[in-house]
Amino acid sequence: MNEQSVRTVGWARSLPMGQGVKAARDWAQEHLNSLGWDETAPDTAHAVLLTVSELVTNAHVHARTDAQLVMSWDTRCLHISVHDGSTALPTPREPDGERVGGRGMLLVDVLADTWEARPCPHGKTVTACFRAPEGVTAV
Q1: Could you say which DSSP state residue 107 is in?
Q2: Could you report the per-residue pLDDT of 42-61, keeping only the tens digit for each?
């Protein structure tokens, strides 16, 4: 059996409820810049930032807990994971003209190549994955 090793670069940040989504976006933007996605794949970078916003917002608003944000890049996919303290798994809801919110997971479903939610011993983790855009090389 021929096994290939995969090089992964990762970053993690804790986001207390008192810190806004802007802090998460700014932090994620720095790491997207370090990968060069801001210049080589600006549309994908914007999709990642919107996804970060939605997942952290869900942790703070719906789970009512702090959020732990992890970004990992394995040269094929960028994985955005947000862990919170609620065991309730997110589900996309149909848009409703009467409701102001409730579209976050629909956005994530459209923006990310894939996403999943998994229960954990102390809450859940929601992970959205973005395949490397054309022209993006390994770091």
Answers
A1: H
A2: 999 999 999 999 999 999 98
Query: Which residue type is seen at 20?
Result: G
- Cα-trace Rg, the chain: 15
Inform me whether the pLDDT recorded for 122 exceeds 90.
yes
Number of H helices, E strands in the chain: 4, 5
Per-residue model confidence (pLDDT) at position 124: 97
Query: Cα separation of 51 and 35, whole Å?
Result: 17
Q: What are phi and psi of 62, to 5 degrees?
A: -85, -45
Estimate to the nearest angstrom the gap between the alpha carbon of 131 and the chain centroid: 13
At 3, which amino acid appears?
E
| DSSP letter (8 states) at residue 100 | S
